[in-house]
Write the structure tokens for this entry.
Amino acid sequence: MTAGSGYFSVVALSALGTGAAAPDFDAVAFDGRKISLSILRKEGPVVLVFLRGFS
């Protein structure tokens, strides 16, 4: 994909600014549990780490 494609435009428009709160989402943890960002926030600060190509 080239830098001029729509993919990069959508990513740039939807990126969060520094210090902005991430929108709520649900995901599946590595052990199969369903987790929600809003539930994790109730327990304290949350750090999100995205590992590209992790297996």
About this structure: The radius of gyration is 15 Å. The chain has two helices and two strands. Residues 27 and 50 are 12 Å apart (CA to CA).
